Every structure is written in structure tokens, then in C-alpha cells.
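FAQ: What does the model actually see?

It sees only this:
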Amino acid sequence: MEGNIIGVAQSYMYKVVTAAVILLVGFVLGILAKKLLKKILKEVELNKIMNKVGFTHDLESMVSSVISYVIYLVTVVIFLDYLVIRSIVIYILLGAILTLIVLTMLVGLKDVIPNFIGWLYLQKKRNLIEEGRKVDIKEISGKVEKIGYLETEIKTERGDILYVPNRLFMKSKFKIRKKD
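And it is asked to produce this:
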């Protein structure tokens, strides 16, 4: 009887230690993948490429972080599965994480979508609002330098460059002055 208890305890210890090693290896792989992917994306100059199309966020960091979080998630699922903690716990964990990801994306896109629609509006008004034209919108007055997907660069008379969200052109009255 006592030998059986020791055998069961050893079996559980072996399982717990193995699960801990799985967790440790998975987290180390996640950290390494994040660093390696960030370095690769920096070599490819992803942020510079995305800046050209008007996306000004640090995409290199975001992509590498998301990949590392996916590795962490898979590691935790394997860890729980190895310890025979299945079904409901894994589903609750995955549901919570997916909900968090969706909410994060929605919060992140709440400014992107209206500004992109504003860009489409500006493309429709292309003959009126174009680079080189002077505009007055709200308290901003100056020459349009560049129309991006999310924002328009306006150079003021004092030489300052202001980045005006494209949605402002749809929401506010603006005046277009003659081209110089």
C-alpha cells in the first residue's frame, strides 16, 4: 500500500515537473520568436513601408508581440492538456483571450475606419482638395502638402506641419482657396 502511494506521488511529481518544463520551454520560445521576428521585420523595414501608405504605428513590434502571445497561448493550452485540465477551463481561457483580442482590435480601429472613409471622401473631391491647394478647416489654415490614407498634412503660413485627421473634412465645413 505504501509503495503504491509513493508510486502515485512520483507519477504526479513527474507529470507536474514535465508540465512545468513544457511551460518554461514554451515561454522561452515565445520570447525568442518575438526577438527574432522583430529583428527580421526591422531588416525588411516594415515600418518604413507602412509609413509610405500612411500607417504610422509600430507594426514591427505589434506583429512580433502578437506572434509571441499566440505561442504563449498554445503553450498554456498544451500545459493544461498535459495536466488533464481540459474542456471547460481551456474553452473559458480561449474565449476570454479571443474576446480581449477582438475588443483590442475594435478599439484600435475606431479611429482608422472613419479616417480611411475620410480619405475616400477626399479622393472623391480630388478636383477640389489636392496637394498644393490652400484650405481653411476649423482653426487650421494652410497649404495641403500630402493626403494620406488616415491624415492630411497641412503646412501653415508659419511653416508648421499639422496632421489633420481625414474624418475632419467630412465632419467640418472647410474652405478651399485658390492655388498659388
